[in-house]
Amino acid sequence: QFNYLLEDNYALQAFSNGNNKEDTTRFECLTHFVILDQRGNTGTHPWKVTTCIREYIDYPGLYDTGLIAMYADSSTDDKNAIKIVVRAAGINQDNIAGLHSKFLESVKWQQ
Questions:
Q1: Which pLDDT score is estimated for 11?
Q2: Which one-letter DSSP state was computed for residue 89?
Q3: Are 80 and 62 in contact (CB under 8 A)?
Q4: In whole angstroms, what is the distance from residue 70 CA to residue 59 CA?
Q5: What pLDDT score was predicted for residue 60?
Q6: What average pLDDT does the chain have?
Q7: What are the distances in angstroms from CA 47 to CA 1, 6, 30, 90?
Q8: Burial of 77 (0-12, 13-18, 19+ CB in 10 A)
Q9: Who's near 34: CB < 8 A, 6+ residues apart?
């Protein structure tokens, strides 16, 4: 049940900038499992990370982007999870890559 609850809540919510299919392309998303704590600590587990991007039709090179990062630990009776969402609107691809990298580098799970 814990995992089903997490999956049901793993979605990128609508952007509040009001863009629709006439304004932007459809979101394209990629999902990977990554280790965010690169120090090699014992007990580190992969996070599920999804990044989504859509381009503005009238402004080529500008994008809306979303990132979801989720970590779940169900190894004990005290089940723990964290979901983090980052969204940005109207930025270029270089800034998207920088934002996502900087954000993921700063996330640490402490038990």
A1: 63
A2: E
A3: no
A4: 32
A5: 94
A6: 79
A7: 19, 13, 14, 27
A8: exposed
A9: 46, 47, 49, 104
